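agent: user wants the structure for Cyclodeaminase from Pseudomonas xionganensis. delegating to structure tool.
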Amino acid sequence: MQIYNRAQIAEKVRLDHAALEAVEAGFAALGRGEVEMPPILSMNIAENNGEVDVKTAHIHGWPRFAIKISPGFFDNPALGLPSLNGLMLLFSAKTGLVDAVLFDEGYLTDIRTALAGAVAAKYLAREAATTVAVIGAGLQAELQVAALRLVRDIQAVHVHARDPLKAQQYAAQMQARHGLPVTVHASAAAACAAADIVVTTTPAREPVLHWHDLPRGVHVTAMGSDNPHKQELEPAILAGADVLVVDRLSQSRALGELHHAPDLAREVLELGALVVSGRSARSRDDQITVCDLTGTGVQDTAIANYAARLLEGA
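agent: tool returned. relaying tokens verbatim.
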């Protein structure tokens, strides 16, 4: 058994096309019905604004499966600590023995979450998309945009965040790290006005994005709602979108955006099915497309297998 720390893992696993292919392969396996993935084990620690999720999946034919333990404590930044933490345990799918402990402190979760957003945009955003609006100014606000650059020619970013200072810091950071110009806006509607892609990256408990905020032709990826008490999109967005996609129907209904629209009567696709099809879900450039990402165990097993291969080859 090998134990790897965050520094070792981050040296090998980056936001690049190879990592994107690994996560996309996980979604493809899910779309083909080749995955065993139980419901998420989730526990809230309300008195400290915290939660702990345990996710796992086995992909048929893959040599290993991962069990990921992921705490999220959202008051931590005020204490000088990261909001997310955790580790992944990697087991042999043949013997059940522990192959590796990936003590990544949440790094791999951050990477696979951002890459899932890129997979969604690959099949749902317009080919000519160049402008992103981000709601929120945390780590995923940066990583989602960085991952999008793997699938679209992103040239400009617009941001709105509850804390204007954090939005300004985000703008400076994106310019310094990624060379992208960022415009800070006082409202979500203003940020979205000229966007080709909108990404919501918040732990909000009520909608931060409304139907009237969205221009025609936009693609929306909502990745913050992964617990029943969280919500980023008003239900009118789910009802009005021309194409509605989720990473896993059962999860979105239990703890994602669909949880807040129980009477929604319309077609909802799974992202894995789009990946298997190999085709864009768009039939016209003026369509509004939406993808709700709750985070799946198959992503964790996919990125953990990928990380282990790289680490073992070191």
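agent: one observation worth passing along. The chain has two domains: 2-108+298-312, 123-296.
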